[in-house]
Amino acid sequence: MKQRIFYLDNISCVLILHMIYTYHIANSCGGFKPTVIAFISTTLSFFMSWFFFKGGMMHKDTSTKLIFQRSARRLLVPFVLFLLLGLLLDGWIQSTKSIDFNVVSFIKGEIVTFLLQSILWPTGASWFLLSLFVARIGFNVLHKRIHPIIITIVFVCIAYAIYIMNCHGWGFLIPGHNLHLDIPTFYMGNMCHGLAVYSLGYYLKEKQFDRIIIVIALALFVLKYFIPSEIDFRANNPSGTNFMLSVLYGMSGCVVINNIFKRICNKRFPVVTYIGCNSMVYYLVHYPVMCVTISLFWEPFADKELWYKFLVLSIIVTIFLIIAEYVFRIKKMRFIIGG
């Protein structure tokens, strides 16, 4: 049985709960951002970078064929299954809301959406699975010939170049849909960014605990409170802030939280460690529950205050996460989440 690294599981719990409640649910409730949630969001803004960074730390040097086989089971299978689930849920939502729902038009629209975004909206969080798959394979091919730091620098620059090209609207209109397909697509940017952070995680697996690395990371981490900059990792977009600063802040956050948790939380905490160990369940399930609830069952809460919406949606999502936790304990169901 694989030995668990408790501090990584504990970090995973903290960041997955932040992602679900103080990021996705809070933003879905009309931008519910009281001071506490705003501070948490700023502090943990590196959360998406960390999951790529952790992937690099856990990377095992082996053949690309073996990496592909393992990653396909762990990442591509759940990605495809949740893509199909997204198709079904979006069909249910649109057919419920529209009296002239047309299956052919719907399918065409979903194909266009997939080309534009690499996901379908009700299961949108699954973008990470495809990007991590690309990062794993890409890194395994490249690092045998290129130093990990060079990989990090080059692919951050490529991600930035993609962002600039997207800002200038490079691409073409999709006939009949009046939609612009960026070339390269923005998700190629998050794949490059993901590969860069993955490579850095591999390189800093042990070095991140050296004093000089800690000091540099901590200085960058503190700087973001004075010069704010935050990137939407999936969209590869810093939303008007500085792209490179956002990337550096994300990387520094990975090093800072790893050092803190390794020193004070490197042991098993029954609930926390368990959630971190099984974070894939919560990651994949929360988003479709949230989307369907808001799309079809939200009318009674439309006029309620933001804190009330946040509380209700949090309770609903939590109930379904508990159910999902029991469902995916069944051995025959584990393949759905890459188990």
Automatic annotation (TrEMBL):
Taken from the record, one Pfam family name reads Acyl_transf_3
Domain Acyltransferase: where? 7-323
Q: Which UniProt keywords apply?
A: Membrane, Transmembrane, Transmembrane helix
Domain of life where this protein originates:
Bacteria
What sections of the protein cross the membrane? 7-26, 32-53, 74-94, 114-134, 146-165, 185-204, 211-227, 239-261, 281-298, 310-328
Give the coiled coil ranges: none
Protein name, UniProt field:
Acyltransferase 3 domain-containing protein
Species for this entry = Segatella bryantii (Prevotella bryantii)
